[in-house]
Design brief:
Blueprint lengths: L1 H17 L22 H14 L15 H4 L4 H8 L25
Length: 110
């Protein structure tokens, strides 16, 4: 199986080099070997190249300046840390967590 596909690819490459180009400049050859058609990579590459040449580059991203806010630059954000630490901000390195709620002390028995 591998051997026949390898031979088909070699035949495809050799024939693509020998055959003249089509009117649009592309040389595409379809080879059938033992009833199997290997993918025509030269045709796919040419088609993708023509699509890529016609594509426009994406607009450049706005540059991050020295005056940009810290949440855009990805550095320390004092307001975000103050929100995270709550009443412990500036007092402790452990964020404030409210005590766990305690359910009513009633009994489940009727």
């Amino acid at each position: 199986m591998k051997h026949s596909v390898g031979i088909a690819l070699r035949v495809l490459l050799i024939s693509a080099a020998v055959l003249p180009a089509r009117a649009d400049g592309q040389t595409c050859v379809q080879v059938t070997l033992n009833g199997q058609k290997p993918p025509a990579y030269n045709c796919l590459n040419q088609q993708m190249q023509s699509l890529a040449l016609g594509a426009q580059a994406p607009p450049p991203a706005l540059p991050v300046t020295a005056n940009a806010p810290s949440n855009q630059v990805g550095t320390f954000n004092q307001q975000g840390v103050a929100e995270q630490y709550g009443q412990n901000f500036g007092k402790s390195i452990i964020p404030y967590r409210p005590p766990a709620p305690v359910m009513g002390g009633g009994s489940l028995r009727p």
